[in-house]
């Protein structure tokens, strides 16, 4: 595994694995990314303790996020009442850790985050209010959240590798002169870039022929595309009746972290 830093992101990347004959998929990469977050205060929605209330740190959901750490400054209930000192605080959560719902999105079975968001409890919650009564307890909890500051949420995000498949079956060159040599797929939720040469060469009958290569430069998450070799008219005329095997090196990168590369080759018989 290799690690490096790019801007505010810490990147961990691993190698490429073959997942089938002529099919490659890069190992997952990992991004460590800071995201903006807000403090939220919620009242109990009902049940046996209607006086309850809780405070949370909330951020927009990020596809592939597996853990979160929130750091912030807060005051205790007494300090919030008297403008007392702040202390450093940390809240953590891990998706699918088996001990609680992902990121405490349904805290205590009562407080549920809105769709499209994740959250962690900020250490502010009360069962049935407080010794000051429901209304005063809610005001105290609200003050604690209002006075909390400096929140920073750091996510660990799993980034799956793209899939590159060599179309290995022998093919009779279509009349268009274009032949597919590979297929590409960007994982759902990803953003992929593609690198491929503009030309490749084949050798036949003592001569070298240059063939064009068509491939997308970018690929949206969940989308597929082909890498195509183009035979010029002169090449199709000279190579008529012969079989050649163009080979194209293709590299697909998901969010510049998880990369898959493959040399795709296909035997093509020219008409």
What does this structure look like?
There is one protein chain. By secondary structure, the chain is mainly beta. Helix content is 10%, strand content 54%. It has helices at 77-82, 134-147, 233-238, and strands at residues 2-6, 9-13, 16-20, 23-26, 29-35, 38-43, 53-60, 65-74, 87-94, 106-107, 111-112, 117-126, 149-159, 163-166, 171-172, 178-185, 191-195, 199-204, 207-214, 218-220, 224-230, 243-244, 247-254, 258-265, 268-269. The strands form six sheets. Strands 3-4-14-16-21-19-18 form a seven-stranded antiparallel sheet, with no helix packed on it. Strands 1-2-5-13-8-9 form a six-stranded antiparallel sheet, covered by helices on one side. β23 and β24 form a beta hairpin.
| DSSP helix fraction | under 10%
Bin the strand percentage.
over 45%
Biggest sheet layout: 7 strands, antiparallel
Beta strands, count = 25
Summarize the structure.
The chain is 10% helix and 54% strand.
Fold blueprint:
Blueprint: E1 2-6, E2 9-13, E3 16-20, E4 23-26, E5 29-35, E6 38-43, E7 53-60, E8 65-74, H1 77-82, E9 87-94, E10 106-107, E11 111-112, E12 117-126, H2 134-147, E13 149-159, E14 163-166, E15 171-172, E16 178-185, E17 191-195, E18 199-204, E19 207-214, E20 218-220, E21 224-230, H3 233-238, E22 243-244, E23 247-254, E24 258-265, E25 268-269
Parallel strand pairs: 15-25
Antiparallel strand pairs: 1-2, 2-5, 3-4, 4-14, 5-13, 6-7, 7-12, 8-9, 8-13, 10-11, 14-16, 16-21, 17-20, 17-23, 18-19, 19-21, 22-25, 23-24
């Amino acid at each position: 595994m290799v690690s490096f830093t790019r801007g505010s992101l810490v990147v961990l990347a691993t190698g490429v694995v073959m997942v089938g004959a002529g099919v490659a998929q890069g190992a997952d990469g990992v991004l460590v990314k800071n995201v903006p977050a807000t403090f939220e205060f919620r009242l109990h929605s009902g049940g046996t303790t209607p006086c309850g209330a809780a405070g949370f740190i909330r951020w927009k959901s990020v596809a592939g996020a597996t853990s979160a750490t929130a750091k912030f400054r807060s005051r205790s209930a007494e300090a919030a009442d008297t403008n007392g000192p702040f202390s450093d605080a940390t809240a953590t959560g891990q998706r699918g850790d088996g001990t609680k719902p992902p990121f405490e999105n349904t805290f205590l079975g009562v407080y549920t985050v809105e769709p499209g968001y994740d959250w962690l409890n900020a250490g502010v919650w009360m069962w049935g209010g407080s010794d000051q009564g429901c209304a005063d307890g809610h005001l105290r909890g609200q003050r604690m959240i209002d006075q909390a500051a400096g929140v920073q949420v750091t996510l660990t995000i799993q980034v799956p590798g793209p899939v590159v498949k060599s179309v290995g079956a022998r093919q009779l060159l279509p009349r268009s002169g274009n032949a597919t040599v590979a297929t590409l797929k960007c994982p759902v939720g990803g953003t992929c870039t593609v690198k491929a040469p503009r030309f490749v060469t084949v050798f036949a009958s003592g001569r070298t022929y240059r063939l064009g290569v068509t491939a997308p430069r970018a690929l949206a998450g969940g989308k597929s595309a082909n890498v195509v070799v183009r035979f010029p008219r002169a090449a199709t005329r000279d190579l008529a009746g012969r079989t050649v095997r163009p080979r194209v090196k293709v590299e697909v990168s998901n969010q510049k972290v998880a990369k898959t590369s493959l040399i795709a080759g296909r035997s093509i018989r020219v008409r």
